[in-house]
Design goal:
Structural class: alpha/beta
Shape: globular
Helix content: 40-55%
Distance between the termini: 22 Å
Radius of gyration: 21 Å
Strand content: 5-15%
CATH architecture of the domain at 63-143 and 178-256 and 280-284: 3-Layer(aba) Sandwich
Oligomer: single chain
CATH class of the domain at 63-143 and 178-256 and 280-284: Alpha Beta
Largest sheet: 6 strands, mixed
């Protein structure tokens, strides 16, 4: 299947499982990724809704239900799309949406010991808090390579008695730990508190690692560029923010004739801070 078809399938699943049209009394409806109190948000989201071809479904969904389904559907898309790019980024990969904490992965396994010590020491608990244990919405891990994978030609092995510290070799680990390849935060919509939480998680991933830094990204359906900017602008926290339907968002802004929001969007795109969901599998192959 082509990645274009996977993207279309991704949108169809979002329409079926998550996107709903909410109505206030005596008012027209608006998609549930819009802020009903913002005319701009409602107008932009409604145009995206039309382009995606979603059916009108007024079933009420809790925020927890929406968030959980968003993670599962996004994870499925990434898994299928990334699999198509195996020729660009070979390896054995693991995909998880069960809120597994990062101490289960090689670069962060030392945090498990730290958490154990902190629970027994109130002074340390007060000083450190508990924010260093991150539980990403979606985790992509890579399995270490076996000696058979590393040396397929037994007569002429690539490596034998050197490179005995790298975690990429399975034999170098006493207890096998996957390498954390990507930490993906899923935010159906963006509010200031949610963007701050995502940035905090990203900074903890950066500061607490022992080894290579994983990809740190966020995926969202937020329709307002000014709110996207609270997460996307700046450098150092995350690799990039990915929108579920960036071309559709760009077209929606043209249709509603909102030049200020369009200018903000173009600044994030040209500044390499915002991309489409279809770009993410390719960026994970870097």
């Amino acid at each position: 299947m082509k990645i274009e078809a996977l993207r279309q399938q991704y949108h169809q699943q979002l329409c079926q499982e998550i996107i709903r049209v909410y109505r206030k009394q005596n008012e027209s409806g608006y998609p549930n990724f819009a802020d009903g109190s913002s005319k701009s948000s409602v107008a932009i989201a409604s145009e995206i809704f039309k382009q995606l071809g979603c059916p009108e479904n007024s079933e009420r969904l809790s925020g927890q239900t929406v968030g959980g389904r968003f993670e599962i559907i996004t994870n499925a898309f990434l898994q299928e799309a990334f699999q198509l790019l195996q020729h660009l980024r070979p390896g054995r990969w693991s995909y998880d949406t069960t809120q597994t904490d990062i101490s289960s992965y090689y670069q962060y396994e030392h945090l498990a010991y730290l958490a154990e010590v902190v629970t027994e020491d109130r002074v340390l608990a007060t000083a450190l808090g508990g924010d260093y244990i991150v539980k990403p919405d979606i985790i992509i891990g890579r399995y270490p390579v076996t000696e058979d994978e590393l040396n397929p030609d037994k007569q002429h092995p690539l490596v034998t008695r050197i490179a005995e510290l790298t975690p990429l070799r399975d034999k170098n680990q006493t207890e096998q730990k996957l390498l954390l390849h990507a930490s993906i935060s899923c935010k159906w919509t963006i509010r200031s508190d949610r963007s701050q939480n995502t940035r905090t998680e990203a900074l903890n991933l950066i500061r607490n690692r022992k080894g290579p830094l994983p990809h740190i990204v966020a995926v969202t359906a937020e329709p307002l560029p000014t709110r996207l900017a609270t997460l996307a602008l700046g450098t150092g926290d995350m690799d990039c923010v990915y929108h579920i339907a960036l071309p559709e968002l760009q077209e929606a802004l043209v249709r509603v004739d909102n030049p200020d929001q369009l200018e903000m969007l173009e600044m994030m795109v040209s500044g390499r801070r915002l991309r489409d969901i279809a770009d993410l599998p390719f960026d994970l192959a870097i």
